[in-house]
Each structure stands twice: as structure tokens, then as C-alpha cells.
């Protein structure tokens, strides 16, 4: 349930920014989540619904943009999307490819009045 | 009104982890974040490690537990400074929990600090505590498919300790297949095949720890490079 901690961090961030921007009600929060985190959208939404209660974010929509994993082979520099968990290179079969994309985890923007 | 934020959710944790790391480095303490499922034998391993390293390295332990202080009491009996963090239900330690615990530790007196994370193979992986190395623990009673099911921790671990191998004859744990899987996920890591009950392979584990700590040994010029 690290989704709870992540969403709490998100709410803290948005609440702080809303105060600075004199926003009284947040209507939408756009979150970008890399596949690496394996966070389930439903769990994030559930946590968001519960933890926003009593904050400026209460009742707002959580929009989640997923970013798929992109890896780069350390041996032959081939870039690929992994199939399964082994991260082995389809070009040369080397394991342990490096992560290029898919580890994003940030609030892109939010909307409010 | 639309407000662009673009800020990483883990940035607050990452900031605090960075501060912890500076504190560890200034005190020349090597720090290990120990991660496993509940009951894999983290506390048992630390009890044994404390015994074997007595007189060789000064050890400290920060132990995370959902509610109790039982683990802290067990480790304390092995003669080690222990600080307990009760996470009140949170399934992983965060850098600021560790920072608060560090106020109770004389870091300048230590060579090696273990952070026993909350029993959980998934959540702790995302939260940097400022450690120098993550170590994964996997007991043979959990089944040899765990690396395939929870690859994240094995990908990030500098070492994996297979524990409770004294129980191997009573399980269907496929050790060779598991080792192969771990190597495929992360071929750079050290693997120790241990039992806290019989002491198997703990000498290698302790030698490795001594080596790791020597990299930061107090008064050692190598450490400041
Ligand atoms: N047979 C056997 N039992 C072990 C070993 N290590 C730990 N245990 C037992 O496994 C249980 C859980 O161990 P503990 O250290 O509390 O696990 P933790 O939750 O990861 O800290 C305890 O009953 C230990 O006595 C081992 O090497 N062999
Ligand atoms: Mg324990
Ligand atoms: Zn390749």
C-alpha cells in the first residue's frame, strides 16, 4: 500500500501550491506514473478519494497518465520495451538492461478555481 | 485555472534521504537497508551477525515494525544499539522516519548500521532511506518463484541473502533455479546461501560486510575519495 504514501505526498504538494496560487477548489489533478512503480490505478484512485477528504482537492478528479517502460541494453545499446520481468535484450540476449523511461512519478498539473 | 507542477512525488523523500546519506558519510558509517517479506529472518540474521562481528565492527540497528518492539528487544540482547521505529501501519520506512530515529544513535561510534525495513517485498523498494546498499532476504520457505514475482527488490539489491537453508529438505524450494533467476535479474549482486540456525555461510556474509565497511573505515583515507 505504498500508494497511500504516494498519494499523500501528491495531496501535500497540490494543497501547498493551491494556497500559494489562491485556489479555493481543485477540480482535476493530472498524475504521471511510470510502469516501473507497478502502482495500480484503482488503488491510486481509492487512496485519492479517501485522503483528499477535507482538503481543497476533495471531490476532484485524479487523471492518471501511464508511461511505459523503455530499456536500453548495456551491451549493444539497443532500446526496447521489456516483455516480462527479465529485462533481457531481444537483440543480443544480455540481461540487466538500463532503464531509459518508465520511472516517472510526478504531478504534471492541476486545475482549480 | 491550470497550474503546472512537474514535481516528483518522491522528491521530499529523496531530499531527506540525501541528507541522511551526508550524515552517514560524514560519520563514516556504512548503511544497509535490509528488505524482505515478513518472517524471512531479518531479525534472526541481525542477531547472528551481531554475535559474529562482535569486537570487529561496531554495529547499530534501526528496526521498523508496524507496532511492536519485539525485534528491537531481540537484537538488543545480542549487545547492539537498537532504535525502534513504529510505523503505525505504514508498510515501509521513509527517509524522515529514519532521520528521526538517527537522533537516538551516536553515529560517530559506529562502523555499520543496518536498517531493518518493514516486512514487505514491494513498497520499501521505492523509498530511498539514504543507505549505501540494499540487501534482499529470501527464505526457502517462501518458494523459489519470489524473484520472478517481485523482481524490483532483486534488481536493486547489491546482495541477496537466501535464508533458512537448514529447512531446504522440508520444502520444494528449487535452489539452483532460484539462483539462476536471481542472476538473470541482476548479475552484479552477491548471493549468500545461509542459515541463522546452523550458521551456514554466515562467515562469508560477515567477511563481505567487513569489506563493505572497510570502504568507509574511520581514519581510512580511501573513504574520503
Ligand atoms: N529454521 C530456521 N528458522 C529461522 C531462521 N531464521 C529465522 N528463523 C525463524 O523464522 C521466524 C521469523 O524470523 P525473524 O527473524 O523474526 O524474521 P523477520 O520478520 O524477517 O525479522 C522466527 O521464528 C525465526 O526463529 C533460520 O535460518 N532457520
Ligand atoms: Mg524482524
Ligand atoms: Zn543487447
The amount of beta strand of chain A, in percent, is 25-35%
What class, by secondary structure content of chain B?
Answer: alpha/beta
CATH top level assignment of chain B: Alpha Beta
Global structural class of chain A: alpha+beta
Question: How are the strands ordered across the major sheet of chain B?
Answer: 4-3-5-2-6-7-8
Give the biggest sheet of chain A.
3 strands, mixed
Question: Tally of extended strands of chain A?
Answer: 6
Basic shape of chain A: elongated
User: Runs of chain A with pLDDT <50, length 5+?
Assistant: none
Helix and strand pattern of chain A: HEHEEEEE
Largest interface, with counts of residues having CB < 8 Å to the other chain, equals: A-B, 31 and 30 residues
The overall average pLDDT of chain B, rounded, is 91
CATH class of the domain at 3-68 and 102-112 in chain A: Alpha Beta
What is the count of β-strands of chain B?
Answer: 8
Q: What is the percentage of strand-forming residues of chain B?
A: 15-25%
Please report the distance between the alpha carbons of the first and last residues of chain A. Answer: 31 Å
What's this model, at a glance?
The complex is a heterodimer of chains A (113) and B (225). With 113 residues, chain A is an alpha+beta fold.
Blueprint of the fold:
The complex is a heterodimer of chains A (113) and B (225).
Chain A: H1 2-20, E1 26-34, H2 41-51, E2 61-67, E3 70-72, E4 79-80, E5 98-101, E6 105-112
Parallel strand pairs in A: 1-2
Antiparallel strand pairs in A: 1-6, 3-4, 3-5
Chain B: E1 2-8, H1 11-26, E2 30-35, H2 42-53, E3 59-65, H3 70-77, E4 81-86, H4 95-102, E5 112-116, E6 133-139, H5 146-149, H6 151-156, E7 159-163, H7 175-185, E8 190-193, H8 202-214
